[in-house]
Amino acid sequence: MTVLPRRDWRQERRQKILAAAAELFGANPYDSVQMRDVAARAEVGKPTLYRYFPSKEELFLEVFKSGLDRLDSEVAAILKDREQPARSLERLLEALLNALGGQVAALRMLTDDQSPVMRRWRNEFRRRRRPFVEAARTILEQGIASGEFRPVDLETVPSMLIGIVRGGLVGTDRVPRERFAAAMIDLVVHALSARTQKAAHAA
């Protein structure tokens, strides 16, 4: 007789809360999201919500960490697939945008740049950003080796790409994320293209 694994209802409930919080933080400024809103969206009582997450700050940061965990998996898949470097780079930038987009939207309206939640968000991102920088470097190296990308400074450009994503999200709050993504990817891939460099030299 086949024995089915026991469902971990606590973990399922936790994930449901995180999904509800991610939706709310992705669509609203941090200060306007209330724990009662998250509880209602997740269909749990406030006491239950506080048993899992003792404060809004902790909940927000756990949403971010979960997003970075998913980003880790996406980056690993991108590198494993070994598509054309330009396509791999597009996928990497899209994954970063999806992971950071809702978080930056929520934080953008905070007036105190040194608020505890802002500091903790930045520290968490700094702690976790190295694999994304290394993935960008690997893709750039592959593109340069294949002749698809022109030679660039591999010590600085990978970090710059991460900064473009984060800085662009902060500076384009009235532009739909899909439009920003398309413009940013077009700019980056065009700037790196060896064909663009050859055309410039020919001119």
Structure explained in plain terms:
With about 200 residues, the protein is mainly alpha-helical. It has a domain at about 65-200: Tetracycline Repressor, domain 2 (Orthogonal Bundle), CATH 1.10.357. It is about 75% helix and about 0% strand. The N and C termini lie far apart (about 75 Å). This is TetR/AcrR family transcriptional regulator. Keywords: DNA-binding, Transcription, Transcription regulation.
Strand segment tally: 0
Question: How many angstroms separate the termini?
Answer: 74 Å
Number of helices: 10
CATH superfamily name of the domain at 63-202?
Answer: Tetracycline Repressor, domain 2
CA-based gyration radius? 20 Å
Helical content (DSSP H or I, runs of 4+): over 70%
Which structural category fits the helices and strands?
mainly alpha
H/E element sequence: HHHHHHHHHH
The outline comes out as: elongated
> Remind me, CATH topology of the domain at 63-202?
Tetracycline Repressor, domain 2
Please state the average pLDDT score: 87
Low-confidence stretches: none
Strand content: under 5%
CATH-scheme architecture of the domain at 63-202: Orthogonal Bundle
Sketch the major β-sheet: none
